[in-house]
Automatic annotation (TrEMBL), chains A, B:
Endpoints of the signal sequence: none
HTH asnC-type domain segment(s): 8-69
Annotated organism of origin: Streptomyces olivaceiscleroticus
InterPro entries for this protein: AsnC-type_HTH_dom, Dimeric_a/b-barrel, Tscrpt_reg_AsnC-like, Tscrpt_reg_AsnC/Lrp_C, Tscrpt_reg_HTH_AsnC-type_CS, WH-like_DNA-bd_sf, WH_DNA-bd_sf
SMART domains, A to Z: HTH_ASNC
Protein name: Lrp/AsnC family transcriptional regulator
TM region positions: none
Swiss-Prot/TrEMBL keywords: DNA-binding, Transcription, Transcription regulation
Length: 173, 173
DNA sequence: CCTGAAAGATCGGGCGA
DNA sequence: TCGCCCGATCTTTCAGG
């Protein structure tokens, strides 16, 4: 939680590369790969967590396997003074909203939404549109991913995920 | 790599929740938490990796700490027949493009881009705009994230990340 | 499908260079 | 900062219900 990132050397970067490739790689294995002892690797990892460079370790899951089969981005246009704080409060109430940010350009905010299916998405969209300060929305349904593994992880400062128990109970079947 | 996801029971979901919260949680700990032996937990995790439910384990990193301080979404409008395959090929050549997808709505594709700074982003954008089939682009610079931890991980079927050694050599300093 | 046992690897703290 | 040492814990395979 400290905040003194301090420059990372090449060893730190290699450690990060190893851990992003596989978060469960042992410190010993990383160590032999980069010419350091397991202890030294662990210390560096601890320090990077301390300073907020590494914000966590997470399993990546195929959302469809958990029942989230629909994905969309929503541009949000707000009334006059749209205080980001207000938007943030509202947005946090939706488990379907997995990312939200203010943006420059036409829209005030951009939301990333996951839903079980199109019906569910429509329901979420309608709920969002009734929020007091929202003037207009434009939705982009995601059709297909062009990059097999779209990282995007750590877009904010991710540490905990936890989409999985929120809503859908129907696996791939 | 097999593909027969087969329904997940509640135990599987709890294991996923534990591993997304912290990918380095030991099987033993997960086991005691959900009332299973470490062996049983491992077997279930192995199976879920096998069937593609869990696609990998990754460290989440604060991009700014690695030198990626600028983030944007780009709507791409293509000429006439815009074959997704063609777009995918091109898009894969850009290390700065961390996610790309085809979308319904006005635009043909939506790109997520990370750059070291605004100058770098402008340079990337200009390169993208010279691609043969692109007619028009609209950029949204990300100003601030409204959800502290925007998961988004596993948007596709993530297993490896690896942004970190591609370009920027300048840490936080 | 599960548990339990056992061998080897890993973790994590302490200590000295 | 590092590497080495060591007890506790974890991983992984195997046998058995």
């Amino acid at each position: 939680m400290a905040h003194a990132p301090g420059p990372l050397d090449e060893l730190d970067r290699k450690i990060i590369a190893a851990l992003t490739a596989n978060a469960r790689t042992s410190f010993a294995e990383i160590g032999t790969a980069i010419g350091l002892s397991a202890t030294a690797v662990k210390r560096r990892v601890d320090r990077m967590r301390e300073t907020g460079v590494i914000t966590g370790f997470t399993a990546t899951v195929r959302p469809a396997a958990l029942g989230w089969r629909t994905e969309a981005y929503i541009e949000v246009y707000c009334d006059g003074a749209a205080p980001p704080r207000r938007i943030a409060e509202v947005v946090r109430r939706y488990p379907e909203i997995t990312a939200a940010m203010t943006v420059s350009g036409g829209a005030d905010a951009l939301l990333h939404v996951r839903a079980t299916d199109v019906e569910h998405f429509e329901e979420v969209l309608e709920r969002i549109r009734t929020e007091s300060f929202i003037r207009k929305t434009i939705s982009y349904m995601v059709l297909s991913h062009l990059i097999p593994d779209s990282p995007e992880a750590g877009a904010g400062s991710s540490a905990v995920q936890g989409y999985g128990l929120d809503e859908p109970g129907s696996p791939t079947r």
